[in-house]
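Example with several molecule types.
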Amino acid sequence: MNAKQPEEGKRAQTRRRRIEELKEAGLVLFLEKGIESVTIDEIVQRASVAKGSFYRYFRDKAELVQSLFEELVSSMEVIFDRCETRLEEASSSEALQEAYVALAAELAPLLLERASRVLLYLQENRAPAVGARESIHQLTTLLNQRALRLTRAAHTHGLLRPYPHKLSAYVVLGATERLLFALLSGDDLGDLLSLPDQLTSLILNGLHTEEIASDETIEKSEG
Amino acid sequence: MNAKQPEEGKRAQTRRRRIEELKEAGLVLFLEKGIESVTIDEIVQRASVAKGSFYRYFRDKAELVQSLFEELVSSMEVIFDRCETRLEEASSSEALQEAYVALAAELAPLLLERASRVLLYLQENRAPAVGARESIHQLTTLLNQRALRLTRAAHTHGLLRPYPHKLSAYVVLGATERLLFALLSGDDLGDLLSLPDQLTSLILNGLHTEEIASDETIEKSEG
DNA sequence: GAGGAATGTGACTGTTTAGTCATCTTTTAA
DNA sequence: TTAAAAGATGACTAAACAGTCACATTCCTC
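Resulting structure tokens for the full complex:
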């Protein structure tokens, strides 16, 4: 149970390494072929491990996938919790904004450090939550709920235009995830450093050069 | 080959019906379990057809999936082509806007009419383009290219703020697809009729109540 | 209405797969 | 040092699967 003790026996050490090897092999294959198409045989072959050994460490493929996302999920929960605490304690509009900026600043390095897992999440995200994809759906639910709560908080404090909360939350989440997917897939998105700022600005201020009342748009489509 | 002639023989008629039954059965199962997890046996059982019959109509599962998207792809190509023609011919800023509004007006009923296929597309969209998912990836490429071209046109005419084209295109696409996914998954998004207008307004004018210079945001995160 | 072509069928084949297990090796702890 | 526990291994089993095929049935054409 003690993780980093030098007193860790050879047993525990190999155990940890084997598990890491199996997870890494699975991750690579999942990204290459999609979770459902990857077999245990492929995983153990790639990890250079006997088939029986796989079952010593994981009950099945679903448990391997779950173990891939455990850290990520709990890390994100901590970060979101922290942000929500900040939001509750904030009194000024500036403090609120700072909380959101801090959220992005904490989330970004985590997502980049765990790029492969994030890509796997984005890739399997919307598929039916059956079998090995159940744990991925868990992360989806987490993100949706948190995005919704954060949006609600922003709305409550009059920071945002009065769109329905779900609409705002899904638009932000959808745009962000789409960009993240492109980025992690190797798509060239220009200067990476300015990307978060560009996204924020685009979402907050809009694409348009001049403000357009929604009524105008309606009348255009009907007249 | 002649589709709607009353002169169509019993053969051709049953053939068409069988194909439709197999496609429908496949579609339902794909949505339920994900494309890769569905077997030919399940499909023929659901369609109440012998296994051998399946192979009389489709070479394999990939061809069934492809046939599911053929109409949708060509319809969308026509609509996008028409929009691009309008954009080229447009001289005024109003004509440009009209072209975009018309695009939305043509796309919306198609997407709603083919809801199941669209949902399947959204669901399998980002998964690796191997095997049966190749034809889905084809639609993804189509949409990305067209979105990019439309964005470029809008930028060229000074309609949008000067973000990188890819950024604008992906943000719009990502947000739209996320909302569409929620909608088609049965998520409650409020008044459906005002949804397109709300989305357009949100993306064009932004979420924020007051304009924010991007420099301010940067300094907040660093100071 | 006859001959031929297309269609329907499900048993069958060969392959792939998940999961097990007997057996051997390594590590631990006393 | 040694006994027991944990780990490693790959052959093995049973089930699932894609794709085929011989044969029966239906439809079309002349």
